[in-house]
Amino acid sequence: MADLNVLIAFDAATIVERNPNASRNPDVPTHVDHGLIYMTTRQDHVIGTSGAELNLRAEPGDSVRWRETTLSLGTDYKALLYRYVSSDSQHVLIRTPEIEVIDGVYPMPQEGSEGSPGFVTQNYQDHYWRTTVKRTGKVVYHFYFQILDRHRQLKGYFQWDPFITIENP
Q: What is the pTM of this model?
């Protein structure tokens, strides 16, 4: 069984710019242009190309983990997934994704002695959404996400409707 890590990168600055009146209701998020969202994983697990949709090579029992970021890596805006809705309402293909919170360590560069590179570390809590593949097939789903600015002010609630196709390797 394998762990497939999927990175979702949002072009948050453009999403905010194009949606100045974005929804402030988490139950009715604003739809976002697929061209502003990028999903990727290890090349040997991708079928075709990466983008707002993602076709994965996976087997029953494999785990899929989604992590989100912004193109500015959170300095200007932060994106946070908050809800998963699926066409697989009986959860036949994948188990309902859940949020996993974990402790992490982040390295920060620091000038070392005699000009050699060094680092210090910083503890933090991280998270991802995790599911388990039950069988192969295609699932259309919605991830709802919110965008916050650097001052932690809500810029809006958003969604897009990617699909995940799971094929045997």
A: 0.84
